[in-house]
Amino acid sequence: MPIPAAPKPKILIPEKVSPDGLALLQDRFEVHEKKGLSAEELLNIIGEYEALIVRSETKVTAELLSVAKKLKVVARAGVGVDNVDVESATKHGIIVVNSPSGNINAAAEHTIALLMAVARNIGDAAASVKDGKWERSRLTGVEAKGKTLGIIGLGKVGLTVARIANGLGMRLIGYDPYANPNLTSAASVILKNSLAEVLKEADFLTLHTPLIASTKGMIGAAELATMRPTARILNVARGGMIDETALVEALDAGTIAGAGIDVFTSEPPQTDSTAAKLIAHPKVVATPHLGASTKEAQENVSIDVCEQVVSILSGELPRSAVNAPIILPEEYRTLQPFVTLLEKMGSLYTQHYSSHLTASGASSKSFRTTFDITYEGALAELKTTKPLFAALVKGLLTPFTSSDGLNINIVNATLLAKERGILINEQRSRENVDDKPYSSFVTLRARASRGTSQARTDVSRSSSPSAARSLKPQEHEDQVIQGFVSGNKPFISRLDKFKGEFVPRGTLLICRNFDSPGKIGLVGSLLGKAGVNIRFMNVAPLHEDVDIDEGVEDVDSSEALMILGVDKPVRQETVKQLISEEGVLEASVVTL
Ligand SMILES: NC(=O)C1=CN([C@@H]2O[C@H](COP(=O)(O)OP(=O)(O)OC[C@H]3O[C@@H](n4cnc5c(N)ncnc54)[C@H](O)[C@@H]3O)[C@@H](O)[C@H]2O)C=CC1
Ligand SMILES: O=C(O)C(=O)COP(=O)(O)O
């Protein structure tokens, strides 16, 4: 009978997002574009979806996220994430990504469009001439050239505005406590020490900060009162940063000459609200949040976030996560295969040490919670190892938690490890690895805690006298997994006391045995009877460091580890049968 195809993960898009990015999703995912959903309708259906792609209209609240049990990613097809409860997403392990630069040019050009429209009364003039009037002297404007433009927030949009305005011959001043002085001076902006200094000099004032606690209401009645009566204000950032009531009053009183506003405290504004009064004001040119609404910007942001959704749903790192460690693109390329390696090492550790059966037939419980992770070679030079750390935690915890559906990812892994009492010390070794066949490698060492009760079980039924010797409780020994990356592919190079290279992928049967003739045939025939095909096999001898490093005196030098890649899960009875065979000491099945 043909095996039914696994259902495709579902993606919900409740707003208009450009089809250019969506084309990347259609084949692999079930994409539902549902515009105009009410908050309640969204709450009712969000539980089915693994990804949610929004713009600025959808409110991604704590309540919504708490019922979004399958959700892995909220993708904001734009810059501002003030409509997403990022803190709540982090708690739930949901990654929030955005497109940090896809629409900045559009936003900057729109700012300049509003600046010109306000300077030359374009809105008023267009309405007047359509109305059949010809009011040339009433509609006389001012020039931008030679005027002072005050820019609050010198990030991506603010600096782009500066560059264009410089071309218009404007004098540029700005305030941003975190501005990069090299970038601002390259854009000809004179940095001021306070908002107040900018306000009193500006002929045009433009805001380009995010809406956060410190910028909410930053331009109120008091600030407007310090500005020139001929000054004009532009806001293409976020409503809420300007007190709308105070602005209407200043325009009415003639203490501010005009305003170009694209964003409002509530969108769309309620009839009779202050925002509606602002829109209707004759000295205001208003647009309905059009800053990012160009064909080009919408293509950019759509492709940007859809690519990231594909990455996340495929278990890879996104480029621009808002609530995860920030990685530079070149670091990202270096880190990605190691992220996979670390996750595999963690998962191998948990599955191998928590599930292996010993020759006594009992499942041993030697899983530990204190680890040292050592990065050697080029990896030791990395600026950040945060994604590697998080990937290890994910690998360690996922085998324990996947059944209850807990979503572990780079966002919440650290917190979850702490909650579960897992302690990981990160170390960098600067030792020369020139003699090694690879430039970086990683060692995971679960430290032995003396006096622990988590000993491996004795052999009571082992038929070999030396088995009893080698299966003495090993709580005094460290458990070690070592790995490296070659050709972008992760490899394990050491497991416990044994060295042997294998690819940590698929289902593996790991079997410790005496290195005596016939073992390979024995395992092969048992698996064959169980209908399991062997894909590859690797025999790992004892690692050369064992005696020296770990003070292991009792190991039988004829022990070896067999690692078999198999085509399907091996049943527990088969594993039990295997360890009851003479000379087979221990076996575990892991799926990586
Ligand atoms: N209307 C629209 O359609 C669009 C609006 N936007 C909005 O534009 C804003 C800016 O976006 P980007 O330039 O990409 O962000 P960005 O993060 O590159 O720059 C923001 C800058 O504001 C500065 N800042 C923060 N607090 C400040 C304060 N209290 N005083 C002065 N400066 C402060 C930061 O240091 C940073 O340099 C965001 O709010 C974004 O949502 C962006 C694109 C389109
Ligand atoms: O990117 C931003 O911050 C914007 O404000 C753009 O909003 P929009 O995607 O056009 O609803």
From TrEMBL:
Residues 11-323 form the D-isomer specific 2-hydroxyacid dehydrogenase catalytic domain. Residues 112-291 form the D-isomer specific 2-hydroxyacid dehydrogenase NAD-binding domain. Keywords: Acetylation, Amino-acid biosynthesis, NAD, Oxidoreductase, Phosphoprotein, Serine biosynthesis. Residues 460-470 have a biased composition (Low complexity). It comes from the Eukaryota. Transmembrane segments: none annotated. It catalyses: (2R)-3-phosphoglycerate + NAD(+) = 3-phosphooxypyruvate + NADH + H(+). The keyword Aminoacyl-tRNA synthetase does not apply. Pathway: Amino-acid biosynthesis; L-serine biosynthesis; L-serine from 3-phospho-D-glycerate: step 1/3. GO terms for molecular function: NAD binding; phosphoglycerate dehydrogenase activity. Residues 335-461 form the D-3-phosphoglycerate dehydrogenase ASB domain. It is an enzyme of class 1 (oxidoreductase). Pfam families: 2-Hacid_dh, 2-Hacid_dh_C, PGDH_inter. The keyword Acetylation applies. Residues 447-477 are annotated as: Disordered. Its EC number is 1.1.1.95. One of its GO terms (biological process) is L-serine biosynthetic process. Belongs to the D-isomer specific 2-hydroxyacid dehydrogenase family. Homotetramer. NCBIfam families: PGDH (TIGR01327). This is D-3-phosphoglycerate dehydrogenase.
